[in-house]
Amino acid sequence: MSDQETVLEMNDLHTHFFTDSGEIPAVDGVSLRVNKGEVVGIVGESGCGKSVASLSIMQLVPSPPGRIVDGDIQFKGENLATATEKRMRKIRGNEISMIFQEPMTSLDPLFTIGNQMEEAIRIHQKISKKEARTKAADMLKQVGIPRAEAILDEHPHQLSGGMRQRVMIAMAMSCDPELLIADEPTTALDVTIQAQILDLMRKLNKENDTAILLITHDLGVVAEICDRVVVMYAGQVVEEGTAREILKDPKHPYSQGLIRSLPKLREREQKLYSIPGTVPKPKMGRVGCRFADRCPFAFDRCYEETPSLIQLNNQRTSRCFLYDKEAQEDAESPVGS
User: Fold this and answer.
1) Proportion of the chain above pLDDT 70, given as a percent
2) At what angle do helices 161-173 and 113-124 cross, to 10 degrees?
3) pTM here?
4) Per-residue confidence at 3, pLDDT binned at 50, 70, 90?
5) H-type helices in 92-128, by residue range?
């Protein structure tokens, strides 16, 4: 990895939705950073705010009803939270690319793959139509699509789901972005295609030093490709650490529940573990730990105070009073008694 040059830094980001039933804090004070050449995963259940966080980076949160109300998103020293639409159009697809969950909704069914790829390339690079077509074909070959020239003349519906997702990756990588945001890029794909897509993303990351922010709920994907992991719950970051630390030794009770609910090959239990209860609906002014109602370790303080992220070691943080308690006990225990 490059010497820790930060490509993206999100500081205390708040993205709210203003609805008829009130203000909803979908992203509630999230901070994270992605270094050059690093793969960072954001994991959590549906509705935890991970996709809204990624859309906030690209300024693609539908407005109304949503908007960034506080915090900043630093990309190479520039605050994207306050950037103009004109500036964002230059950044999107060129310096930051995004792969969406469902390629069929991102590709225009009326135009050929070639039309769409060439347009994306020519918007950001001053090259001729012929050069753009050559580059598009090269990108398709890079992502392992056979018959690249012929595929350029086909429409999205003529391709399989895995092929469409490869086209999306080829399009996202065609301008050599510094940051690639992938929102559940393998969800709709079967396991073999999923493995190929992950290999492809890893290859692009290694060869081009592209930083990747990967949004997923699949911990298998995290184990496969991520360097660091941010665990989100109910709009907040509840734990952060290296992928190895989080998968081997999760600290937050929510992370522990996620790891415990993974199927294990060597165990023949009939029933998979699932975290009891449901994710609370986001609301303003909530006091206490958001996971308290589902947590086996919750005690009085968890309902009365809101925990902040506690630093456990150099890269490791956890939003849990269990570690605050330990830190206090360590501080209070008399030395050499």
Assistant:
1) 93
2) 20
3) 0.88
4) low
5) 103-106, 113-124
User: What tens digit of pLDDT does each residue of 266-280 get?
Assistant: 766 667 788 888 888
Structure tokens at 92: 């999107």
Length of the chain counted residue by residue: 337
**pLDDT score of 63:** 84
Q: Are 164 and 244 part of one and the same domain? A: no
CA 286 to chain centre: 25
Is residue 166 domain-resident? yes
Cα of 242 vs its chain's centroid, Å: 15
Average pLDDT over every residue of 75-101 = 90
Q: For residues 131 and 151, state if they share a domain.
A: yes
Amino acid 31 reads S
Q: How far apart are the first and last CA of the chain?
A: 45
| Counted domains in the chain | 2
Measured between alpha carbons, how far is 207 from 180 in angstroms, rounded to an integer?
A: 14
In a domain, 105, yes or no: no
Residue 163 falls inside a structural domain: yes
Cβ neighbour number for residue 33 with a 10 Å cutoff: 17
| Burial class, 268, CB count within 10 angstroms (exposed 0-12 / middle 13-18 / buried 19+) | exposed
Residue keyed to tokens 């693609």: 60
Beta-carbon contacts of residue 23 (< 8 Å; ≥ 6 apart): 16, 17, 284
Domain that holds residue 195: 6-95+177-278
Q: Is residue 315 part of a domain?
A: no
| Strand order across the 179-183 sheet | 96-99, 179-183, 211-216, 39-43, 228-233, 236-242, 317-318, 310-311
Instruction: In whole angstroms, give the CA distance from residue 304 to residue 289.
Output: 8
Same domain, yes or no, for 128 and 19? no
Q: Within a 10 A sphere around the Cβ of 335, how many other Cβ atoms?
A: 4
Residues 182 and 168 in one domain: no
Residues 52 and 165 in one domain: no
Of 135, 151, 174, the one marking the end of a domain is: 174
Q: Of 313, 297, 240, nearest to 44 (Cα)?
A: 240
